[in-house]
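Project standup — Tuesday

K.O.: blocked on the structure for the chain from last sprint. Re-posting the sequence here as requested.
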Amino acid sequence: MLRARWALSQFWKVYSSIPFSSDSGSGWISTSGDISQETYKKTLNFYLNGKPVQVDSRNINPAEPLIDYIRNNANLKGTKLACGEGGCGACTVTISHYDHEKQAVTHRAVNSCLVPLCYVEGMDVTTVEGIGSVFDELHPVQERMAIWGGSQCGFCTPGFIMSMYTGLRNNPEPDSKSFQKCMDGNLCRCTGYRPIVDAAKSFCHDTKDTVKPPEDRAFKPYDAAKEKPFPEELKQKKIVPLQLTNESASWYAPTSLKDLLDIKAKIISGSTELGIDFRFKGTTFPVLISPVNVPELTDIHHDDNGLHIGSAVTLDNIGRYLEECAASLSPSQRHRERAIQSVLDQLHYFAGTQIRNVATIGGNIVNASPISDLNPVLLALGATFYTQKAGEKAKPVAASEYFTGYKKVKMEDQEILSHVTIPWNEEDEFVEAYKQGRRREDDIAIVTSAMLAKVQDEKIVKAKLGFGGLAPTSILSPKTEAFLIGKKLDLQTFNEAAAVLNREVGLRGENVPGGQAGYRTTLALSFFYKFFLSLLHHHSLPVPEKLGRSTEKAFPAETTRATQEYRLNKRGTSVGQSEPHLSAKKHTTGEARYVDDMPHQHRELQSALILADRGHAKILSLDKEAAMKVPGVVGIYTYRDVPGSNLWGDVISDEELFASKEVLHYGQMLGIVVAEHEIAAKEAAKLIKIEYEDLPGIYTIDDAIQADSFFPVTHGVTQKNVDEEMSKAPLTLEGQIYMGGQEQFYFETQTSLVVPDEEDMYVYTSTQNAHKTQKFVASTLGIPINQVVTRVGRVGGGFGGKETRNINFSAAAALAAYYTRRPVRVRLERNVDMQITGGRHPFKSSYKIGFDSSGKLLAADLQLYANGGMSHDLSVAVLDRALLFCDSSYNVPALRNKGRVARTNIPSHTAFRGFGGPQGYLTAEAYVEHVASFLKLRPEVVRERNLYNEGDLTYYNFPVTKSVRRSWDECKISSKFQDRLQEIEIYNSQNRHRKRGITLIPSKYGVAFNAMFLNQGSAMIHIYLDGTILVTHGGIEMGQGLNTKVAQVVANELGVHISHVRIKEMATDKIPNASPSAASMSTDIYGGAALDAARQLAERLRPYREKDSGATLGQLAVKAYFDRVSLSAQGFFKSEHEGYDIMTNKGKVWRYFTLGTACTEVEIDTLTGDHKVRRVDLVLDVGDPINPTIDIGQVEGAFMQGAGLVSIEELAWGDNQHPWIKQGGKLQTAGPGTYKIPSADDIPTEWNISLMPDTTDPKLETVAVQSSKAVGEPPLLLGMSVYFAIKEAVKAARREEGQEEYFQLNSPLTSERIRMACVDDLSRMAVGEGAEDIQTKGSF
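H.V.: unblocked you, prediction finished:
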């Protein structure tokens, strides 16, 4: 993948940006050359959304990313900046250019956060605003995304729109496989992708008849003839040399190789590193050169000697050319397809489409990344690189001699890489390429490889084994290659050669850069094994039948088949209908406004935070002198400048806004710099000199246990005399499990704009908790709360991460605004946001379980530890909820649990969807699975024998409804679990290294705030004389469809269509003291409050309606107005349940349960650890939905977050588990380059969801608004079924090795954990003694 962030392997990973180099690969040429300045054009000309743009060179910073011009100069805010490193796709735009040679227009989707503005000379740039508008007409892509529910928070939506739009411009009638590939560089955190994929399938000739929108809504056909034409001016425009120069830098785009060689500068091709250098590192470049218009460098052709590729040819163009080349091979040339395919295999999973569209082969080579996808292929195929300098001919360098060290290559000063020759493989040569990352799509490699062998008379006469990820450079394996020569092609030779390879390339020790030494070595051996088996197959030599699928590579992308089953129970004018999200159309057009989209305010200041670069240290001094001298700096503020309180915290104010004497975590805020421009603020922040005295750090739960570092709270629940019941139990077991944390990865990072106005402070912020933001801004400034107004329009994703952790940034901005009396904007960059805002709490759980021989659970004694970070935040509340989920859905007659929160030197962990529930749930399911393993029973047998029955009380005295067993029974039948279980057992018996696992697993999720006082809320409704309605409530719309549901409730109660209702932004001067939008309670609370207000108004209008039943609401309002009847109402809601005290185990903690069951099937590759979710069946009780489509969307999004939590999402902190991360407490996985959320490729191949009707039981549970139930968080537990399905597959693999006993398998189940748990001869060879019991490292 294409991000210059530090990968977990600690190898600087960039694939495309510097195709030429000098100074041993540094990318710099130190002296200036002489070129003719008169021939160069001096203005930048391009089209933007169909309109010509001309920019004078004096107004351009050549390194400035395109997105900065689009958002700041053109004021087109639809293009979103979410990561700044090309890793999420939110910034996607289309660039189109005219290919004079082909006489055709080419359209490319690109990451505008990486592509420099200067790159688009002579091109037509299209943003999401350029294809459709809610005020004009939506493009078919926009319309279908809105209809299918493909947006929730909407922040990622413009990027998806532009990727699909570009795909259609290139192929108006695509097939589903290629069209979905167009979106492989786009991520979404909300939707679970299925509705996006279905919207895309509606355009594809092979799938358009298989998908239907909710309620069969009509949509217009796609007509490519209606697309805007490419500007004629650009077709006629000749390519001429370009020079753009201002006071800081120059950009050259020469049109000849001679001119390029005469310029001494940084060469920029795809610019996929430059954008990162500019944004994150503040790097400046005096001179930059773009080679994209140099014919010699953009040529690609082939002859009998091989492929000849110019260094500036993009990866996408290489892929297209190779596909055409393969299709044109004659029968006598068919063997060449092996070399072609090996390159294509690597390109397929090379970054995302947006990157491949601009990344070049030269950049990939010269960057010399040790985990390059392509370089091992070039090594194995014996490629030749040609370097050249001014006045000389190109000279060849063998690929095997080119890479001289980490990020270093064999090039002289002032040389460039001009082109690459890849020879054809010989007819009897066999080639394969391999890659394993943390995620299949758009990811960097952990290990990558390519291998070539030639066999004659069943003997190996030639071998080339190339690897990446095992050394500072891409390498060959000469010792192993030499060993193979002359050896017979059989498995005995493999075993002997594998031992040689292990000694030659194997990694040893915990301090290996990037860690994962055992896994990376095992991968190398596994790839070699796959290759050897493929070689045997190719030569028709005997291979055991069970190894037939062992040669297969990554699971291929498949088009998802999905069904959603629910009963439409329409009540009144709106409730029960699948109304589209109120903001859906604006999401798709980019017209939905978020905080950072707000216009630049008069005299607005930009900011940069002063952050500590220590994990734990005393602050000895902080010197601002040099920073204050930076031109444009207005002020620098620290704890000494806080006029009010420097302490804040949601429950306990134990956290400093700005650290005063001691740094408690890496990245802790020490102050804020404000300046006229963001660049000046960042520069000043870097110049602040801070002296520290380092202190020992505590980073993990086990660190805290050893040091006895805990917050002074121990909570727990006890039912019956557990010791007595445990002593009676015929059987007992003890065990433990660790669960890693999770990053919220909301797409809109923490953002606040504070505007002072006379006595008041207006805080525009992205928060789930407007009230607490208001409170602590006032506290910081030492002013009354009524002088602070917090306003929240919409939030680009929250998932709990904006319930408290936005507050300090709003307060910091407010402090600067307080002193300067000027607006101040704070927006965190993605890497900073991830480093300092905290996430889901890692947990350690220990258990002792009593049970009988049938699997009946009798007693449970549990100890839970949460890693809370450096302050309380919400950790105790998270712990409490975990303690209340320790039964999953099982009746344990005697249960005792205790929990503590570890105080550590990492940022405070905080709320995250599920709020402790997932950690308690995993604990329960772990001990149930352990019992089943001990008794040699399927886990489903033990689960079913212990399921709650209707009316049973939980260990905290809450009644359970019949839906637990009903959802289990229905899911078991509809999923055909028993039949598939038998099929999987047969499949596993026939396949050695591909194993499938299936699980049937229930969940119950209690709904309410644990803190009883939070179960309240207000809403205000105004009816206007035209019959339109304005609603303001205390909830926050962050994608969950809250405003849509509230509008439906109000419209229904007042007898109008939903189009009559408008929801206004949340503002604390309208709705005071609002509870946060959290705990899945927002619809209950604010829908209930709005219902109360609407009923008041309906009652006031009832006499008029009785007199004229046919009157419109506007007519009724007019009559009431003339009778002086108020048309405004304040509604209030408070939950009816009594509340709960966890220390006494008294009361009722929930309003009701949202319940469900999942049947999940996966397949794993035991040689690599890769996995694929094959099928998921979900049956849920979500009451009687207000809006079934929105509820389905929440189910899908939550499921995929849960699946990510227990599989590919892994956080790596600088701790004793990761000694190669040199700075204690630093988050290494701070960005999409290293932290992997699920992509569209990770969703189930088959996905069936059923919402059960008629589930509400008023006798046992509180009935919510319109008989609906909360749905935001509960399905996340079902996503965790992926963990247990994978573990079943791992069990099958271990049984092949005679490993029948129970084994601990911590979460998340990354490819590393899966592979190392599937112990075999290869993993034993890689890690030595103890391979069977190895526990993969993790930050817990």
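K.O.: great, moving the ticket to review. The chain has 39 helices and 49 strands. The CA atoms of residues 898 and 1320 lie 38 Å apart.
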